[in-house]
Each structure stands twice: as C-alpha cells, then as structure tokens.
C-alpha cells in the first residue's frame, strides 16, 4: 500500500475539520489543543481531555462527530445541559437530539429511527439510559462515529458529583471496541483523573491536559465591613446590567439578600434547596433565558449551569474550600469575555470555617487534610501576592507569572513588619486568660475603658492602651491574619474566644518574622480608571453610542430567543454581538466574518441583525 495515503487522508480530514469550524460554528481558528484532540479522535483514537471551563471542550467531540461517518453519541449527566447543547447545535444547523426521560414515547422512537437510518449527527444520552438493553440494541443497529463522555469526573467517588450510572459506561468499550471514546472534564486533580482512566478503561488513551487558568476572570477579595452595602456598590459600579451569581451560606441569607437587591431595583431571584421545586426551576429558567438576572443562591445552585455570559460570581460568605471556590467562580465568563470573581471576607468567616472543621466528625488523618485545605483557603484570602498564583499553585501549576488581572496585581498590597503588633495582640490574649473575642481585645489595645473592661479589671493590664498606633479596623485585620497564620486559634465550642496557637510563644519571643498585609482602603474608582482587562473586547469599553447599539442588539436577540423559547445565547453569544457593534458589518459577507456567525445563523438571522445595525 502507498504509505503516503493515510497522511493525505489525515490532511483532508484536517481541512474538513477547519471548514466545519468556519461554516457551522463561525470561528476562524482552533483554540489551544482543540485541533490536536480533534485530529486524534477523527483518526479513531481514545482520549481524555482535561480543559478548564470555557476552554472549548464541546467542539472537541462535535467536530469529529461531523467529520467521521456515523453518529456522535454524547453522554451527559443533566437534562438541562443536554437541552442547551442541542438547542445551540440546531441553531447552527446540526442535526442533534437528546434521549432522556423528558421525552414522550413517540419522540424517543422517532429519534431511534433517525439513528438507525443515519439521519442524525449527534445524540445526547443520559448515562442510565445509554446502558439499557433497548438503547444498546439501537446503537448496535446504527453506525456510531464516537462516544463522548462529558463531565467524566462523575465516574469518580472523589469528585463532588459522583454518579453511579457512570460506572457502567465501561461496557461501551467492551460492546463497541472499534468506536473511539473521548472523555472530558474540567476537574484537574490527580485522584479524580486516575479514577476516570481506570473506571472507564482508558489506560491506553492519550491525555490532553490544558492549563487550568481562567485568564478572563478577575479575582478580588475585599475585607468585610458592611457586606450588603459592599455588594450593592460592586454591582452598581461594575455590573449595573449584567447577569451573575451571588453565593451565600444559608437559605435565610439567600432570601434576605435577594429581597434587598430587589428593593434596590435589581432583577434578583433566590435559589436554594428549601424552595418549592417549581419555584426553583422557574428562577433558574429565568436566569438562563432573560438578560441581566442576578441569582442569589446557596451552593445548591450551579451544577449544570452552562450560561456563557455570567459576568460575575460574588461570594458573601467564604466558600468551603479552594476547590469549591474555583468551581463556583468558574461559572463566570465561559464565553471568554471579562468576568469578576468577587468575595467579601472577615473574621466571622474564619470562625465559621474553623467551627466546621472542629465540629466535623472525622478521624485525625481526615481532619489534618481538612485543616490544610482550610489553611490554603485562608492563605488565598490573606495573600499579598497575586491571587491567581496562589490558586494555580494550589492546583499544581507552580510557575505562573503575576497575572495583572487580580486585585493584588492591579493595586499592589503593601505589607508591613508586624512583629511588634503581633506581640501586643498575643499578649492581650494571654493576659486576659485566652477566652475573649476580638472586639474586647481590640478595646483593650486601644485603651477603651468600657464598663465591662473596668469590671473585669482589664484597664489595669499592661497591654491596656498600648495599641494606639493602629486604628480599630487595623487591629481587627491583625487578629484575622494571626488566626490565618496559625498563631491564634478560635475556641468555637465556647464563645468564639481566641487562644494562643502552638507557634505563639515563638512570636512572643521575637523568633519568627511576621508580615501583615495592609487591607486596601475600599476605594471607589470608576470602571474606566481601573486597569485594562486583558480579555476586554478590543478597543476597551464601549462609547455611549456603542452601548446603545449593543442594548438594541441584545433586545432583538431576546425577542428572537423568546419566540423559539431558547436562551438568548444560543442565538448569538455576547462576544459575537460585541464584535458586531465594533465592526458594524454592512453586508452578509461582512457579517459572516464575525466569530460565531456560521452559515445557518447567517441565513436565519443575518438580515435581521443587519437591519438592526443599519438602524442603529
Ligand atoms: P467548555 O465545555 O470547555 O466549558 P465550551 O465548549 O462551552 O466550553 O466553549 C466555551 C466557549 O468558547 C463557547 O462560547 C464556544 O462557542 C467558544 N469557543 C470554543 N471553541 C472556540 C474557537 N475555536 N474559537 C472561538 N470560540 C470558541
Ligand atoms: Zn494577579
């Protein structure tokens, strides 16, 4: 056989993949490892793809499914996820369907017939359905291009989303040994990854691992003063019309904050496990299908939320761990446009985390692991360095440069030598018997002779009034950082009093160097004054005229979406509308050049948006 033949075939397939990228999806070039993954799968290879959220995993199996003969079968854990993907594919002119429990019997039969006849390109299937004898039979009567196993971490007990049904997917390889399999996940950690390989029988599969950075997300942590007012200021200044998520720890707080924001004129809806399922569903639907909805939620919200234009994720309480934080904030900015991850954080948060740790009923080894996780989280909150470096370092990417897109990079934090202040604070703790809280201790340092202090005789202590060089909020910050650094501990079973940590004697002796970060003053600066965001649309912020046009295009998109009852982003992504505003295309040819405008969308919506652009 001519040894050049496979190479020629491979390059023809690569051309075909690029053509589909342009025609169907409207994009010019592949991102990162997409092209390599696609080439590998098209050639019939198995693989595991580790890519961050928003990295572009879907194309890695959608394009091979179109290039290869037969149907692409996509295993996906959630009906909502499938529906979104199928809607988006249909808009792009791809023949796609979902097989899940939401179908009527007639509908399922019709899809199965289309599969046998090869009259469909991509079928999304729930895992429990895929392994039924009926479905396996249909598969064996159809021509299959590939199996894609999305959210593959669901197979692992280590992950937070373990799905027992995923375990049975190992049978795919046994039943259909010649069909390539591609497993995809955004979960990075080693144990989960090993589990996926082992349980899905992917030992021979090639691994494609992209970095986990989300460069378009800007991380900021602000010291908590008046959390509600801080949240409102953040929303008003940074995201007056944007959709986003506000996470709170308790249901009560969710209700309270949603009500508060609604009173302030925001379209804010609550979401937590205590709401009626119908209400919850409706609120989630509105978040997806309307523009500018703020969802206020407990962590019950988020799994399976694929809305690309979530512009901010705000935490009013600290998350459980850095893993949880990364996952929750990762729901912002999937479309690659700038998004904010914003958190308020204070002493009460530290105490509640410590409380969770101490009261959890686990063995010593487990407790040690949890303490390390807690320390990592506190370290992230209190760092004076680049937050992204801390985050990525925690996930194993150690040599990331400073990011210039987090609060500490944009507004470098000053650190100060805190040995003397630490000694004063620790000695106040020690001399009062290691059982008082921060407020009382700060009063002593500042020499405030309250009734309680006089009654207790604390106004006669040597430390009384020795801390006048710092203001009240600065002392609070010192105590918080001493706890974060482990020199102080919190008695969570008692009344939240502080006691000396193991390292405190060293600090008191002056044998340890101590640095504190100086909390940034909560400055009010307008968006324009802030550093440019690397991922900001080319040319920076909109002019007011562009802003008006953008609003028009958005409104038109919403109308079109409502008519078809699909989310607006399956019509066009924000990035695509933004480019329309910038480039002002005047013809279908010019419009087709804009990323995200494929052939099918050009035919359906091209005229409508050109009219809108001409009128604007
Ligand atoms: P993931 O599943 O990894 O979270 P998606 O597949 O949903 O990510 O893709 C995220 C976003 O990136 C989508 O808006 C998608 O249309 C866009 N995208 C993917 N690949 C490309 C590309 N090659 N060029 C431009 N945009 C892309
Ligand atoms: Zn940074």
What does this structure look like?
This protein is 46% helix and 12% strand. It has 4 domains: 5-209, P-loop containing nucleotide triphosphate hydrolases (Rossmann fold, 3-Layer(aba) Sandwich), CATH 3.40.50; 217-410, Rossmann fold (3-Layer(aba) Sandwich); 415-517, Arc Repressor Mutant, subunit A (Orthogonal Bundle), CATH 1.10.10; 544-615, HRDC domain (DNA polymerase, domain 1, Orthogonal Bundle). With 616 residues, the protein is of the alpha/beta class. The model is unreliable at 522-539 (pLDDT under 50). A 7-stranded parallel beta sheet has the order 3-4-2-5-6-1-7, sandwiched between helices. The structure holds adenosine-5'-diphosphate and zinc ion (ZN). The site of adenosine-5'-diphosphate has 18 residues, from helix 3.
Helical percentage = 40-55%
Give the overall silhouette.
globular
In this entry the ligands are:
adenosine-5'-diphosphate, zinc ion
> What share of the residues does DSSP label as strand, in percent?
5-15%
How far do the termini sit from each other?
A: 61 Å
Poorly predicted runs are: 522-539
Strand order of the largest sheet: 3-4-2-5-6-1-7
What integer is the average pLDDT? 89
The count of β-strands is 17
Compute the number of helices: 27
Biggest sheet details: 7 strands, parallel
CATH class label of the largest domain? Alpha Beta
Q: Which architecture of the largest domain would the CATH scheme give at its second level?
A: 3-Layer(aba) Sandwich
What is the CATH homologous superfamily assignment of the largest domain?
Answer: P-loop containing nucleotide triphosphate hydrolases
- The structural domain count equals 4
